[in-house]
Design a protein that fits this description.
alpha+beta; 3-stranded antiparallel beta sheet; 30% helix; 19% strand; globular
Amino acid sequence: MLFCLLVPLALNAAPVDPVDPDERCPVCGMKVAKYPSWIAQLHAVGEPVVMFDGVKDMMAYYFYPKKYDGGGDMAAADIWVKDYYSLQWIDGRKALYVVGSDVLGPMGDELIPFEKRDAADNFMKDHQGKTILAFDDIEAEMIMAMKKKHMMKMKKKKK
């Protein structure tokens, strides 16, 4: 009986790799495979795996899944991100994120993920990061402000 309960949870237990070259981010529409260093994944129980071209878009989806035609229980979802230095998949809920650095992702300002605190500290010093956040400290308002800032920059470039 216990086996039957654990199998559905284990189906999404590992990150999908390699990523389908035609996979698109549901938030911005970009092909995620073009940016392998930045890919983030969200595995909600009973839902297809969703890929993103960066943590920022993944968090927008996490906070507002219905806006992007998503579903499932986000609180129980497995989250996978790539450590900035090692490029290895790490548990996104256990990662530390540097915010406000001079390193830009595919869609501008980005949350830069790290598995280890010392790596995040060193990156923050080297790249003028503003703060380091745990997953549970990331707020929807911050993500939407980062996305709005990127959209404003894009509008200025078009003029």
